[in-house]
Each structure stands twice: as C-alpha cells, then as structure tokens.
Amino acid sequence: MCGRFSLFDMFGLEVRFNINLPESLVPSYNIAPSQEILAIIGGGGEQERYRAQLLRWGLIPFWAGDADASKKMINARAETVEKKASFKESFARRRCLIPADGFYEWKKEEGRKRPYRITLHNGELFAFAGLWDEWSSPRGETIKSCAIITTLANKLVEPVHDRMPVILAREAEAAWLDPRTELPALKELLQPYPPQFMECYEVSAIVNSPRNDRAEVVEPL
DNA sequence: CCAGACGTTGTT
DNA sequence: GTCTGG
DNA sequence: CCAGACGTTGTT
DNA sequence: GTCTGG
Predict the structure, then answer these.
(1) CATH architecture of structural domain A5-103+124-153+160-194
(2) Does A202 participate in catalysis according to the annotation?
(3) How do residues A61-72 score in pLDDT, each as one tens digit?
C-alpha cells in the first residue's frame, strides 16, 4: 500500500507538471495521511493548463455523513475502484495526479517493521494516480480530499510489500486527467510501474514518525 | 421494498 | 448517491 | 503508513 | 485492542 511519501524537489515541479505552485506548499520528506497534499487536476478539452490543488489525504465521499471517512480512505484498490461506492464517482469524474519523488513501504519481519524508500532513477519526479472528492458538512464547510490508487507490487517492491501505489507512465498522465477517456482505457493505465526504472533501499526508522520531516529519512541506511 | 453500509492493509 | 443484504 | 493516546469532573 | 493525529 502507500501510506507515506515525499515531495521535496520543488524546483522541477512547476515545469514538469506545467503548474503554478500554491503559496502554502512546502517541501516534505515525510508526508502522511490527513495532511494537505499537492494534487493536479484539469486538462483535456478546453482547459489549457493543469491546476494545482491542495487536498486532504484521505478521501471523504461527497455523500458521507461526517468527515471521519477520511481517516480510512487513503488508498483505493485499482482492481475494484470502478465498483466501490466510495470511489466510483471519483474514478469516473474526479481523477488527479499526485506528484512525488519517492514513497515508503514497511517490510514486516520477525515481529518488527523496517522502512524502505522507493524512487525512480535519479530521484526523478513522478505522479501517483489519484482520486479526489469534495464534501460539504451540514454547516456548509467544504473539504476537498483525495486517495492514492494501489496495485500489485512489482518485482522490485514485492520483497518488501505485496502492494504499491500506481505510478503513472509519464505519457499516461494526460489521459488519466482527461475527462473524455473511457473507463476501460482508464483501468488499463493502472499498472505496476516497470521495476527496471525504479530503485528500492532501506532507510532509517526515523521515518516512522511523521514528525521527522528532514532529509535524513531519504538517506540509504 | 427499506436499512445499512460504503475502505485498505495485514493478521488470524 | 448507490449498492448489498434481508 | 506509524506513533501515541486511550477519561471525567470540577476548578482555574 | 482500537482510535486519533500527523
């Protein structure tokens, strides 16, 4: 699954995704659920440019009775995303890119967990396939939130964990955002990323606490 | 028909 | 809102 | 995802 | 054990 990632390479970000960054966005080595994260929406048709949008990580379906759903819905399974009540509407109409430069998975062994960091070669920026939604409370407060889609781990990640987030091929990003893309074509985009373009290495357990947001957590152990 | 759930991961 | 279970 | 808290009453 | 906060 994917419950932690990083996005600290802010310089390449605007050019790579053709966006203006939100003022309040700060680089982070250790991004956790419940935080406001950068997402990219728009594209396709008349819209010339993608838009950056901060979203709470943890999707609250628009019909939810309260906002507690967000504590659970940090991931959506690629295999079932078009069928689940909580995600189907977002899958059909509210897809987003979630930029990152690495993510973390924990390997469980002998009763303890060791964290690993997974990146593309050279720490290149990439985008998770994401879903978003907008929820309004009875009092009229609105919350925009999101989830990251997961799929089977590839050969590189599989020794650490059996699931991993969907990283979109760069040439698939536009199709993912395009409202005209048909559902079967969308599902085809949700594949495990090719392991030969990725790196996986153990990192310090300092990353375990989301409070430890510093460069040390991305260093090889 | 209405009521009630709506999720993933990991562990058992 | 929409699906599943009864 | 992991870490850390997990409670009420009454008083300031 | 389970929920909340980050």
Answers:
(1) Alpha-Beta Complex (3.90)
(2) no
(3) 999 999 998 889
